[in-house]
Amino acid sequence: MKKKLAAMAVVGAALCMSTMMVSAEEDLITVGYAQVGHESDWRTANTQDYQNVFSEENGYELSLIDCDNDNAAQLEAVRNFIQQGMDYIIIAPIQSAGWDTVLQEALDAGIPVIIADREIEASEDMYDAWVGTDPHNEGVTAGNWLAEQLDGAEANILQIEGTVGASATIGRTEGFAEVAAEHDEWTILDSQSGDFTQDGGQAVMESFIKSYEGEFNVVVCQNDNEAYGAMDAMDAAGITYGADGDVILISYDATHDGLQYTLDGKINLDVECNPIQAETVKGVIEKMEAGEEFEARTLVEEQAFCAPGIESEYAVQMTQEILDGRAY
Ligand code: GYE
Question: 0.85 exceeded by the pTM?
Fold first, then answer.
């Protein structure tokens, strides 16, 4: 769907554009980015991407606040952006719920808001645009790949979820559960949050091993960092995983190290979630600045990668070349 900013904002943008040509420094476009935190390699890559793209050379002054996975701190960060009169506000919402009040405040202040990375549970007229990924689809891909590989064999699955209440967690959990529901021979033994962190993944896996040792043959981690923690826990317990192991290990994100482990056969499947989104967001802002129509929703492209030697209709086999071509 295409959208246009309300007239007043467009006039403001046009003025800003014309003054920009006169003096550079003062007329940088100010952008506040309320970032989730620094919980994962994915997040680090996403932060770096914004810092590269929203640079002064490109005409922007970026104020990026690391909200340390604290929902209240994130609401506060957005309120501060409103008070500072930022030209644009970008939010990567930690939690999908609870945004109505602060979005209304941004609307009242006439500041365009772009939701990035994750989804929010708010009516689409409360914000201007959305750029992100499709975690539900990622969950379905993981499920389809597993069904294809098991080909009717039993699965006893342990799942380490992401942050509770995050749309990335909700989507991946629901998408995977949809496929699981079609397989009577699959049992999800347990599913607990590892908060998208390596420590969280390790702690959950250690407790899973205590409860289910010898009973599981699939571990699904909802991001790469959790997978690294789960690998440490399985290594310590002498449990083998990966292409040559007893346990099938599925991960999400496909960051550089995750793909290295996939290439090494330690992770069987890594479903990509692309953190490189800033250029797309910048494209939306440029259209807004020019008073042109912009995409109300843009999905960033993604695919899935499996260990070498695994034939799949749902994933590409990892190669050194793919890894070398990775920008993050
Ligand atoms: O998968 C995880 C990060 O929101 C898609 O957040 C993102 C998720 C990503 O911490 O590693």
Answer: yes
